[in-house]
């Protein structure tokens, strides 16, 4: 009998906890408060972004293009892994 009352009280407490938590979470006052805090954060971000300094780009013409000749590729010796192990040149 006591064991059943203990389980019933646990279930009762958990049910009321979930009920009141959901009631508070979905209430209009909580929605207003969260919406206001999100708006304040976005206003702060906008204010800070206006004060940021922009840096001059120093990456113009930084890429150097190399021309590959087909003749140079033919002159190169192709190495194979097993051949390198067997040859002791």
What labels describe this entry?
mainly alpha, 66% helix
Strand and helix layout:
Layout: H1 2-25, H2 28-50, H3 70-75, H4 81-86
Would you give an account of this structure?
There is one protein chain. The protein is mainly α. The protein contains four helices and no strands. The protein has helices spanning 2-25, 28-50, 70-75, 81-86. The longest helix is centred in the first third of the chain and has 24 residues, at 2-25. The N and C termini lie far apart (92 Å).
Query: What's the main sheet like?
Result: none
Q: How would you spell out the order of helices and strands?
A: HHHH
Kindly state the percentage of residues in helix: 55-70%
Q: Number of helical runs?
A: 4
Mean pLDDT: 84
Unreliable runs: none
| Shape assignment | flat
Question: What is shown here, in short?
Answer:
The chain is an all-alpha fold and 89 residues long.
């Amino acid at each position: 009998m006591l064991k059943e009352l203990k389980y019933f009280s646990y279930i009762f407490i958990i049910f009321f906890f979930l009920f009141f938590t959901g009631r508070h979470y979905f209430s209009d006052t909580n929605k207003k408060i969260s919406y206001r805090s999100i708006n304040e954060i976005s206003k702060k971000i906008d204010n800070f972004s206006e004060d940021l300094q922009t840096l001059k780009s120093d990456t113009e013409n930084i890429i150097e293009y190399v021309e590959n000749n087909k003749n140079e590729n033919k002159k190169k010796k192709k190495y194979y892994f097993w051949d390198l192990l067997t040859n002791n040149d």
